[in-house]
Amino acid sequence: MDTLTQVQSSYQAQFEQALSRRKRNEPGWLSNIRSRAMDRFSDVGFPTTEDEDWRFTNVDRIGQTPFLASQKPLRIPSPQQCAELVCTENAAACIVFVDGYFSAELSDLKGLSDGVRVTDVAQALVKDGAFLQEHLCRYADTDRDAFVALNAALFGCGAVVHVSPGVIVEKPIHVVFISTASAEATACHPRNLIVAEANSQVAVVESYVAVADSVYFTNAVTEVVAGENAVVEHYMIERDAPSSYNVSTLRVEQHRNSNFASHSILLGGSLVRNNVHPVLNGEGAQSLLNGLYVLGGDQHADNHMRVEHAKPHCDSRQYYKGIMDDESHAVFAGRIIVHKDAQKTDAKQSNMNLLLTDRAQIDTKPQLEIYADDVKCTHGATIGQIDANAVFYLRSRGLSEQDARNLLIYAFVGESLSRMKQESLRLSVEALVLARLPRAGELRESRG
């Protein structure tokens, strides 16, 4: 038996062990979903570079590592450590998971207004089973994606956010996943559900951070339902440990006249895959996918966008920017699919990349798949290096070469930051990006 087969068999064993524990607490409908998902994963296994959607991303490091199921941590970070890891200032609520286990000590769910519920998915299954049966595991496609299937089979943690019709949540809701140091390679499969009912508004921040460097695998799936006229913002801030792996899938179901915005910030991890898949399934829906990835060393980050226009008179925008240093490698694959009935579609896609060394790489693949005849769709990609003439100009004004380069890099990312409506989050992300640049302190002083 080869290593890959052994690893897949170990996931089957984890599934069977978990199934016996959950039989008393989980409803039959979820057990059926889990079983079908595990069967699907066993049939197809991990994707290879022969699969078109994974052509530029080799996941052998994940597929050949015998990850153990994450264990409840013996020690959790202190509230002060948590605050240092993740900026939850000005939050409506904060729900925290440590190594895949809900932490009541670090969570703060007291300030929620009427009509807003935030809870651990395990608790929600007991207290609100009918609601979860309607939405949980109903949107992300287990047949299409092996990682989604593996998540559906094994997930044990995650947040459920439910906003009632007409409720406006003024401050962001934070969902935080913290990984602690472990001597063994472990895997965690978070499953999040965000449902914003008709005429509601909410912003949710999904953060992945680590206390220390260690080898772990996070396989996360988040399903979002934006009801009629709902306004939903989703922020994914990934700052995993340098030796870790993160595969995340965001699947969005949009109803009539809904407005959805996704902001993906990829900064950490050894290998990261970010899947974003909104389906504009109601007339007049609008979708914004805004992303920023800053890589160094030998990091690999793959952004895979799939935007489906299913109904007429819908607009979508994709703006992804990347900065690659050292020997890092980025991938962008953006597909706009316009279904036959989606007349009057207006869709745009842009991917811009800045290579800071001759060794950094980017593979970018914008695509259009159009089955309607009355649409307006554009796409484009650019790859370049820092303009030597611009550096010379700034140096002639008294800046050092490094400060001139940093200022140009900051100007490059500024457009992505400006699309973030939540000011506290925008400032927090700006600080994280600046910290990745050489002599960041001097750049901050030169700006301010």
Describe this structure in words.
The strands form 2 sheets. Strands 1, 4, 5, 7, 8, 10, 12, 14, 16, 18 and 20 form an 11-stranded mixed sheet that branches. Helix 1 runs antiparallel to helix 2 and helix 8 packs across helix 9. The longest helix has 20 residues, at about 5-20. The protein is α/β, with parallel strands linked by helices and about 450 residues long. About 25% of the residues lie in helices and about 40% in strands. Strand 2 and strand 3 form a beta hairpin.
Briefly, what is this?
The chain is α/β, with parallel strands linked by helices and 448 residues long.
Q: Layout of helices and strands, plus pairs?
A:
Layout: H1 3-22, H2 28-44, H3 60-63, E1 68-69, H4 79-85, E2 93-98, E3 101-108, E4 116-120, H5 121-127, H6 129-135, H7 146-154, E5 159-163, E6 173-179, E7 186-188, E8 191-196, E9 201-210, E10 216-226, E11 231-239, E12 245-254, E13 259-266, E14 271-280, E15 286-295, E16 300-309, E17 315-324, E18 329-338, E19 346-355, E20 361-370, E21 376-384, H8 388-396, H9 401-418, H10 423-435, H11 440-447
Parallel strand pairs: 1-7, 2-6, 5-8, 6-9, 7-10, 8-10, 9-11, 10-12, 11-13, 12-14, 13-15, 14-16, 15-17, 16-18, 17-19, 18-20, 19-21
Antiparallel strand pairs: 2-3, 4-5
Helix pairs in contact: 1-2, 2-7, 8-9
